[in-house]
Every structure is written in structure tokens, then in C-alpha cells.
Amino acid sequence: MKIVIIGGGPAGSTAARKLAPFYHVTLIQDKLDFDKPCGGGIKTKAFKEFDIPNKLIKHSLDHVIMKYKNTTVKVDLNGKNLSIVKRDEFDKKLRDLAQQAGAKIIYGRFKTVKNNKAIIKTDNSILNLDYDILIAADGVNSTVRKALNLPKIPATITHYARIDQYKVQTCEFFFDFDIGGEYYAWAFPHENLTHIGTVSRGNFENLCRYLNVKAKPKGYKIPTWQENIIIQKNNVYFVGDAAGQVMPLSFEGIYYAIKSADLLANCILENKNYPNEWNKRFFKEFSLMKKLEALNKTFIRGFVVKAHKLKLIQKFSVKMWLGE
After folding, report:
1. Pick from 21, 227, 242: which is nearest to 134 by CA?
2. Whether residue 86 is found in the same domain as residue 213
3. Could you give the CA distance from residue 267 to residue 33 in angstroms, rounded to a whole number?
4. Which one of 221, 240, 267 terminates a domain?
5. Which domain holds residue 182?
6. CA 214, 141, 117, 128: dihedral to nearest 10 degrees?
7. pLDDT digits (tens, 9 = 90+) for 75-117
8. Cβ atoms of 23 and 3 closer than 8 Å
9. Can you point out the beta strands (E) in the chain?
10. What are the helix and strand counts (H, E) for the chain?
């Protein structure tokens, strides 16, 4: 069986690595050295769970900071259960692991599908790749979705920058409405820099003033998960950002892209229904976080931050977020 995977990020590479020992797998990677604008946060347990080298971890965190007006709360993560990676390095290693498992990697750009052929444009030619299964792991702006006339993934635009004027040792989350907007603002350690961001451009400017830094933001879409996103159409499967599989409220995407890709690969290997299996595994969790996300947009946000001074609340939140 021939499987073509569009997208060489965590989702595409994980699916390729899992499926390559059993099928003829071709992975299409658009750019050689694309460093996705991402805070790089991932649950530490993913490294053991998916046999990913620990050397990719740039920062191991045992706590995070929540801030709201004059309240600052240190949230214990029950060990170094949150890690920060550098996305270009992390993604490249996952592609290397997929290649070692037997996947063929082609650098090129997906154009369209026609009669169970993926049309790929490389620097030198146009390829027509036959497939029995096509996996779209090509991000929130999925060109595969567009080619199949499927609705776009619901998304919001984040504004972010990497700066050296404000140093952090762990992840800081800012919940003031004028800084965090509908969701929150953040500052993550990023090797020798700090990755800061928020959703609206106005909130980003307020964040910079609050941190006393100057930065010109870039914009990037991130999925906002909703019920009933189409994740399979006939023999085409969507996974990761291309399926909207980013956890509401926390906006954690890397871990759930990897988990969802692993689940998809198992469904293909075991001939199971992928949408049903994904819903059985993740729907309740994502739905609950979607409800909490809605609450976070109300006045109750300040009370929630202050409530995290209580260890019981911290433990509950960390259990929901990190499973620890």
C-alpha cells in the first residue's frame, strides 16, 4: 500500500515513522529549514512515550508563573513535566527518525490531487505520486483541505516576537484583559532569547509596554478547535493543525499533533475508523477545555488565577493540562 504524507512537522513525521515499516511511505516536506513560530512547549512525557531523544530539550520546567494585575502565582508542575524545544531542530529530528524507519522524504510543494495522485512541485519537476492513502499534515492553512473544497480550519492570529530584553527562566502567562485579550499573553524561554506573544496586535503592544521592551510582531495563525471539524474524507486523512487538533485554552499543539498522528497510524494499521477513535480518545478532553476557554473570556478569569494559590487547584489544573 502506498501512503503519501503532506507535511513534515510533528504530525506528519510521527505518522510516517509509525507506518513506514509496514507500507511504502513518502513524506512531502515543503521547506528544508522552516522554524515554525511556536513557543515550543511540549509535555516532557512525550519524549519517553514516543522515543524522542532528550537532547532536543532546551529547557526543562518544574513550574510556571500566572499573573493577573497585582497577583503573581507560581504553579508547581509536580516535577520537570514541561519542556521547551526549538522547532526547526525538533521537527528535523522527527523527520530523520521517520526516514530511518523507511520513509522516503521529498522536498517539494503540494499542488493538488487528481485521480488518487498527489501533484507535487519540486525545484526541478512536477511529480504525480500515486497513493492509496493521503495524510494531510500540512498545517492550519492546509492546501489539501483547499484542494478537496473542505472548510478552512477555524483559527486566530497570534502576534509574537523573539526578544533579548526580557529574560525568563520559565513560562509566564499574563491574564490581564488589556494584555492578554480574549485568551492570555505569554513569555517563554527560548534558548538565549524569550518568545513573547498574544492574540491581538493591540494587546501585543500593551504586553511590550508592560515588559518595558520594544518588538515588532509577526503574525501566525493557530487553530481554534471546534466540534465537527472534518478529519477524514474518503481515503484522505487530516491530522495535527490541518485537523484543528490544538488543545483549547492552553493552545498546546505539538503533543496533540504527535498523539493524534500516532492514533491515526494505529487506525490505518488496524483498519479502524479514525474520526470515531479520535473522538473516543480526545473529544471529552477537548470539549471540557473549550468550555473552560469560554469561561476564561469572562470576568471570572481573575478569580481563577487567584484560586491557583491553593495547592489543590494547582494539582487539578496540572493534572488536566499535563496529566501529572
Report:
1. 242
2. no
3. 31
4. 221
5. 156-221
6. -30
7. 999 999 999 999 989 999 999 999 999 999 999 999 999 999 9
8. yes
9. 2-6, 24-29, 41-43, 57-61, 63-68, 71-76, 82-85, 104-107, 109-113, 117-121, 126-130, 133-136, 155-163, 172-174, 185-190, 193-198, 218-223, 232-233, 236-238
10. 11, 19
Same-domain check for residues 107 and 210: no
Is this prediction's pTM over 0.85? yes
- Statement to judge: residues 150 and 193 lie in one domain: no
Query: Based on the number of CB atoms within 10 Å of its own CB, is 93 exposed (0-12), middle (13-18) or buried (19 or more)?
Result: middle
What is the distance between the alpha carbons of residues 263 and 267, in angstroms, rounded to a whole number?
Answer: 6
Among the candidates 187, 221, 255, a domain finishes at 221
> What whole-number percentage of the chain has pLDDT above 70?
98
Query: Which one, of 277, 250, 267, lies nearest residue 42 by Cα?
Result: 250
Residues 298 and 149 placed together within one structural domain of the fold: yes
For residues 170 and 295, membership in a common domain is answered with: no
Short-list 215, 212, 214, 182, CA closest to 199: 182
36, pLDDT greater than 80? no
pLDDT value at 34 more than 70: no
Residues 191 and 106 in one domain: no
Same domain, 209 and 275: no
**Which pLDDT score is estimated for 324?**
55
Does residue 117 contact residue 130 with C-beta atoms inside 8 Å?
Answer: yes
